[in-house]
Prior knowledge:
This protein is an all-alpha fold.
Amino acid sequence: xxxxxxxxxxxxxxxxxxxxxxxxxxxxxxxxxxxxxxxxxxxxxxxxxxxxxxxxxxxxxxxxxxxxxxxxxxxxxxxxxxxxxxxxxxxxxxxxxxxxxxxxxxxxxxxxxxxxxxxxxxxxxxxxxxxxxxxxxxxxxxxxxxxxxxxxxxxxxxxxxxxxxxxxxxxxxxxxxxxxxxxxxxxxxxxxxxxxxxxxxxxxxxxxxxxxxxxxxxxxxxxxxxxxxxxxxxxxxxxx
Length: 240
């Protein structure tokens, strides 16, 4: 894609935030509109989702400690991956081997804008949260046995990819005041569930006030980031 085409794509969708654009638009356009690369991304999200669910099945407390209806609030990282997969899946009908549709022109509606917003904030929040939580007590996680190498570096690396994937969503998605409000309510409800009932993601130490306050701060921060990064929902390209 030429630079002029790249600029044209960015006029509608793309990274609108005050922070530097994380990726050139043409890179995201190429990767997310090729059937093979998009398929591999969905497979990676699916595998990571299953690994996350397995972690919560064998953790303490485990999924058995909560109602099935509350699984999305308890399994924070798997929830983010599920939302990310659904967000990416909205592109699938428009992916072709020849002349794929521009990401900037992906149809949208109010429900889809909510989905993209939720995927973005959940991935960013728990990508960052995991790094903070592990490094509040690094003595419990850093080591050189295979288990500890995975439980620190492996988990940090996989959750860093949460952030990278989240950064691609504004290139094809958009948000709205309603979507941001719903996302904030759900994030704060999740925080109350986690720290009010002691069902935060399993750690090797008791989460105290510091981690709880950091988590609340992240909930607000990611909403502000989403409001800044996304294009606002309009009906011009909408499916409404």
